[in-house]
Amino acid sequence: MSEQMKCKKEKHLKKDDMLNLKDNINRFDDLKFNRRAFLKTAVGASVALGLSTLPFSVKAFLGDFEDDRELVEIVKLEDLPKGSSVTFNYPSEKDPALLIHTKAGELKAYNSACTHLMCPVFYEEESEVLLCPCHQGFFDLNNGHPIAGPPQRELPLIELEVQNGVVYAAGRKIRHG
Q1: What is the mean pLDDT of residues 73-80?
Q2: Which residues form the Rieske domain (predicted)?
Q3: DSSP for the chain?
């Protein structure tokens, strides 16, 4: 083979290689998986998600969730003098809770299981704190946050409602993770 023939053949091979690279793109896949198709899918998914949550938004806007609260009667306010407390169970019979009528006349309620090792928490009337006697843990009466001892997390807060002189438990807030 002459030198000239070899060069022509190599040139021919290079052209074929370039043609193969150009032809390996599948037009169907290129049209199916492109940026525009991705954006259409993302927008469609966002709209579908927004429409699926619309009934909950309307229900919340109308305030229908507030009526779903279950009120649990705790005690008549006249039976709970200032500076005293009463125990009850909320939200289930397995969850002990404590309702306190402070010396200032405020009503406070917390679940009474210590957040350290679940010992019962008691109201100390003289110092107006909540005490866990197991490991000398103290909680602030105003917000249920630990102020001394081993507990690191606050007591779950029980929301209260007073209707016609009767104190009701209306919900519970767990404020830590």
Answers
A1: 92
A2: 72-169
A3: --HHHHHHHHHHHHHHHHHHHHHTS-HHHHHHSSHHHHHHHHHHHHHHHHHHHHHHHHHHHHTGGGGGPPPEEEEEGGGS-TTEEEEEE-SSTTSEEEEEE-TTS-EEEEE-B-TTT--B-EEETTTTEEEETTTTEEEETTT--EEESS--SPPPEEEEEEETTEEEEEEEE----
Residues 6+ apart with CB under 8 A from 119: 113, 132, 133, 134, 135
Q: What is the pLDDT of residue 68?
A: 61
To 10 degrees, the CA torsion angle through 83, 121, 128, 177?
-120
The answer, yes or no, to whether residue 15 has pLDDT greater than 70, is no
Q: How many Å apart are CA 119 and CA 135, to the nearest integer? A: 9
Give mean pLDDT, residues 106-116.
93
Taking the whole predicted model, whether its pTM rises above 0.70 is answered as no
Assign domain 72-173 to its CATH superfamily.
Rieske [2Fe-2S] iron-sulphur domain (2.102.10.10)
Residue 76 confidence (pLDDT) above 60: yes
- Contact assessment for residue 107 and residue 101, using Cβ atoms and an 8 Å cutoff: yes
Where are the domains positioned within the chain? 15-62, 72-173
Q: Measure the CA–CA gap between 105 and 131, rounded to whole angstroms.
A: 20
